[in-house]
Amino acid sequence: MDLKRLALVGLTLWACAPARTPGFVSGRLPGTDGASHPIVDPEAKFTVVEFFSAHCPCQAQHDARLRELVKRYRGQGIAFVAIDSEAEATVSRDRAEAARRGYPYVILVDPEGTAARAMKADYATYSLLVDRAGTVLFRGGIDSDRSHLRDDATPYLQNAIDDVLAARPVRLPEAKTLGCSLMLK
Amino acid sequence: MSRRRSTFVERLAAITVLVGWSAHANAQACCAGTGAVTPGRLALHEVALVGVQLKGAAELGSFDARGQYEKAPVGASELNLEQDLFGAIRFLDRAQLALLVPFVETRRTNRAASEFGGGLGDLNLSLRYDFTLAGASRSVPGIAALSGITFPTGTPPDAEDLRPLATDATGIGAFQGSLGLAVEQVFGAWLVSATGLVAVRSARNVTTGGVTVHERLAPQWTALGAVAYVLPSEAAIALSISYATEGNAVIDGAEAAGSGRRMTTVTLGGLLPLSDSWRLQGALFANPPFSDTSRNQTGFCGLSFTVVHSWT
Questions:
Q1: Rg of chain A's alpha carbons, rounded to an integer?
Q2: Does 1.20.1070.10 match the CATH number of domain A17-165?
Q3: Which domains does chain B have, with CATH numbers?
Q4: What percent of chain B has pLDDT over 90?
Q5: pLDDT score at A168
Q6: Which of A87, A99, A168, B242 is deepest in the core (most CB within 10 A)?
Q7: Which of A13-22, A84-93, A131-140, B147-156 has the lowest mean pLDDT?
């Protein structure tokens, strides 16, 4: 294979490769259960990372949909985790929020906003679907609704999960997030 | 005079309101707070909106050139109505363009006559660019640049063939350009905003009674402060105070003493989101009938009602 063809193949592979989030945080953060957790669950096929805001009405409206997603997919190798990167995030506050909202997963507490900045999360409910290697397969809103939820909303995150579980390309790898601004430090 | 002046200030207030209030509204209130004051600004997640605002205001009195307030004389009354069609579109992530098309009507009565007239007012095009967003950082507030231009599409008060009480005067007769800066920040469910604007008007020739003079109005400076509270349901209430002031006009190269103006307006507004794409807004506004709060202005009290449809 000559150099030109090699370069062409390389460029093609680069262009077709799934996007990796620049600076994706591979470290650990303290969780509302008192333990330290990796952001990407190494034992799950895929991890859903959702950016949480304790104050955002859009977040509150989506609590039920998040619980529903966990119920549907946790048994299929999908892990869920939320991250609170807002300046006022504390373990105790988020523990109370997780309990009040009935979250069946931990909230990782990141008051320095490191994870949000690294993952380019600007808005509450911004979610990523990530594989074990840290490759981001989907990023964006949970669905096409903001705070007044409708039955005919497009379930972006659910569709992405269905696609990766079916081993097919994600139909919409990036979607708009309709949540509040995350107030970072 | 009073009609022309109040119309001008109302236009400027409309510009301020159209581009000056944060639509992003509330990090912790997700976008509702801004609409409590201004219906014409896109929330961060919105790409376009259209709306209609209905306004009605009754004249209660007037402020003279020294700022002394006098109640309207017995037998005299004025009712100002306005229907504003507006739209806004986002053309960059941080930039939005808005158009306001006002229709203005006046019912004016004195001891001898009563008259109703109106028509198209002065169109306004405004631009907003958000350098930073309210609620995105605890230490850096939202900062935005504002600009606007108003076109003299209305009927000026010196137009020929006006009715006797000039109720069909709907504009100021001059172009005006404005520049401003808005700063806003979110504190939990509260949004606090401060906006400053300066507007300059083109010079023009004014003919009255067969005499033509060259008139240039002084630049007008406007400050707007507002605070909004957003409920968990995303319904919001807001209180804003605006203060506009300008120096004396220059007529044929000479300053016209006593022609400067100032106006203070207090607005209490509320917003009710019906869905993610429809919202209602209402407001009660007035300039306080206290001497020195306004000058060369009418004193009024009014209501507005707005319906907005947006797209994300």
A1: 17
A2: no
A3: 3-311 (2.40.128.130)
A4: 64
A5: 96
A6: B242
A7: A13-22
Closest listed residue to residue B80, CA positions, set B178, B174, B18, B9: B9
Query: Measured between alpha carbons, how far is A167 from A160 in angstroms, rounded to an integer?
Result: 10
Residues in contact with A5: Cβ distance below 8 Å, sequence separation at least 6, in sequence order: none
The Cα–Cα gap between A28 and A41 comes to 10
- Local confidence band at A4 (pLDDT 50, 70, 90 cut-offs): low
Closest CA to B297 of B123, B131, B60: B60
Q: Contact A57/B29, CB-based, under 8 Å?
A: yes
Closest residue in chain A to residue B132, using alpha carbons only: A181
**Structure confidence at residue B312 (pLDDT):** 87
Q: Are B39 and B306 within 8 A, CB to CB?
A: yes
Q: What is the mean pLDDT of chain B?
A: 86
Write out the two tokens for A86.
């807002």
Nearest chain A residue to B312, by CA: A178
A122 chain-B contacts, CB cut-off 8 A = 136
- Domain borders along chain A are 17-165
Residue in the block written with tokens 């409590």: B36
**Interface predicted TM-score (ipTM):** 0.74
What's this model's pTM, rounded to 2 decimal places? 0.81
pLDDT digits (tens, 9 = 90+) for A75-118: 999 999 999 999 999 999 999 999 999 999 999 999 999 999 99
- Among A145, A179, A183, select the one facing B186 at the smallest CB separation: A183
Q: Do A57 and B234 touch (CB under 8 A)?
A: yes
CA distances from B71 to B46, B77, B289, B291, B298 (A): 44, 10, 9, 11, 10
Residues of chain B with pLDDT under 50: 1-30
3-state secondary structure string across chain A: CCHHHHHHHHHHHHHHCCCECCCCCCCEEEECCCCEEECCCCCCCEEEEEECCCCCHHHHHHHHHHHHHHHHHHHHCEEEEEEECCCCCCHHHHHHHHHHHCCCCCEEECCCCHHHHHCCCCECCCEEEEECCCEEEEEECCCCCCCCCCCCCCCHHHHHHHHHHCCCCCCCCECCCCCCECCEC
